[in-house]
What does this fold into?
Amino acid sequence: MSAVESPPAAAIRPPASPGSMNVDWEERVNPERLRTYRLGRARDALAASQLGALLLFDFNNIRYVTSTHIGEWARDKMTRYALLTRGGAPHLWDFGSAAKHHRLNCPWLPPENVRGGMIGLRGAVAPEAGLFTRAAREVAQILRDEGVADMPLGVDILEPPMQAALEAEGITVRDGQQVMLDAREVKSADEITLLNTACAMVDGAYQLIAERLKPGVRENQLVADVTKALFDMGSEHVDNINAVSGERCSPHPHVFSDRLIRPGDQAFFDIIQTYVGYKTCYYRTFTVGTATDAQRDAYKRAREWIDASIELMKPGVTTDQVASVWPRAQEFGFDSEMECFGLQFGHGVGLFLHERPIISRLNSMDNPIELKEGMVIALETYCPATDGYSAARIEEEVVVTADGPQVITRFPSQDLFVANEY
It folds into this structure.
């Protein structure tokens, strides 16, 4: 094509992956636009529901609505929470001095809406101390002040004593998680850029694995090397790295070990990491030095299954159509769809690892939902080899666009990758 010709009409420009720096000379991720989009989506989803407000304990929902974060150490503490009422600005209760930090550094939140919060650290402070009661009274007063006290309150995840305290204040508690998942299912251009940049970091992590996957290296050593590399590239958190090799490949154990890599091993990896809140879920399979016919055949089948599902990543397609191109449990060695759940699998990915839609034969055949433009979906396939212990695992992250699927996971995967070939 000459310099003056236009690209062909069928060409699709890939989403940006500009790196971790923001600059003044190029449009990249716009944080204010990102915050505005997410809060707007949450407000719209709330308005479309029967709820008057959302009380959020799920870290991902708190970040989506308030754009605040205090580190992964706090994720399982159940102490920080946020409240969003119809038409109101977000309220946030955060851990101790984090509240003062937010008042100083988060001008998009009304400072009077940011408070210290503490309800017991998952029972470490007993309910009898009254912290649940105090929190419920504060929430009830805001619901009255903002005119929604007579409507149900949606809550995403909840400790039983908190539910009892809310109900003691006369509040009707309902499921709010579905409302938030409605809000989060379609990603903005900024979210897609962050997801794509996160994938670019994992592309580099797989290059490191390809270079270091040799006999004598332990699975956990590779996990350590990749974890450091991701933090060097700007990762906010390395959630998990599955490193599975040799006889551990079938059945899939979903955890790494200290096993030594050996010549001829098949090995697969899943790299789950977080960049500015947005996660990856990205498998690749290798063999070490050489590959057998059984290993190549398993990989070929896994590739065929994932390609068939990628082809269906279009607006208007339903998830039962996607699941139908994957094998039934009995066709690859399992007794039921429950027992092999997560092996032939699709899931939305964003601030949380598993967002809507969840695609599998377990749930999608009887309860399908429609794919929408702007969804970002990770598709995973798995095929055990006929040797009885090797297996192939592939995962691609795909953006659903009006022009067709865009794959944002780029480390080579069309053919079985032989690392350090002999």
